[in-house]
Amino acid sequence: MNDPSVAAAVVTTPPILRLRRGLVVEHAPGALRVTSMATREVIEYAVDDHVVDLLACLDGTLDRGGVHRRLQEAGHLVSLGVVDAVLAVLRGDGLLATGPDAAGADPRRTAQLRFLDELASLHPAPGRDAASLQASLVASRVVVLGVGGAGSTVVAALARAGVGEIVVVDADVVEVSNLDRQPLFDTDDVGTHKVVAAAARVATVDPAVRVVPVPLHVRGPADLDPLLDGVDLVVSCADQPSVAAASGWVADAAWPRGLPHIVGGAYGSALGVPGFTVVPGSTACWWCARSAATGPDDDDPSWQAALVTPRGGTISAVTGLVGNMTAWEALRVLLGLPLGFSDRLLELDLMTMQWHETGVPRRRSCPCAGGAPAPVPPPA
To answer: Does pTM surpass 0.85?
Structure first.
């Protein structure tokens, strides 16, 4: 940072300057080391003494002129151009926050706003800061199909994040057997429609989040179509009549609208499978994922079903893990952040904590390969 060639890099700085959250700054004579706790990245600099004091000034209370004055008061007789040069290096290395500190704006979400502030700094874009990211969540409308183990967790996580409206679709009522793994419900809810109980529970957490209960038994994409106007995302957590069938219905309803959807999540025993994310026009579609998952031997007539044992059980820790991973992916869709579950299928072995990944290529016969919003199911 004491390179004289950088001194000419005078840039327009924000009115108030502060370092990004989650940084550990260490110094030794003539050296500075900055470690990001979010990315594990370590950057080392050769510096003059004034740089260490300059970083201490970047607490969100001073503009560049204020930083310059404070350095002079501390005995560092450096020019404003030198201050600008250091700020240019910090900005170029992604160490400056990108917007005002909104952590105290909403006491309900102080920790979340700090988190969004870090995300905005790690993934900068014009106008993106913690407040704008939170505002985008408040303005979002999400449909969640199925509020069982994973779906209940997804709804709870989205509501606590402040998603403005959640349309919850499920025809079931709460049973005692649900209470060990479905966090939206308790004993008093037994016998109540799950969607009604979910809406009541969310209202106790954040009355500003609107939950629209739809006690509907979905039998095909036509049942979903009336629910999708003005929606930003659909999340399928349904497993009836099967995960694949419900995912196909969601894909058939959402894809022609160009509507992002997360489908295909599952769990059982020691295996967790987060949902597969589809953004029409940008990612592989659900039908390409089905083709990649079934493999070339799926239609081999020499293989015939001989025995299927009853489905394995699960436990709250597993359903919660899968549901929260899916909810985190849903939030990334809504926030316009890089996705984790698109163009690949992921399975987590919960005993070894190792991921198994299957790439999802776009089939040449599928319009999604060219970005056209029309699904083509794989051959029967």
So the answer is: yes
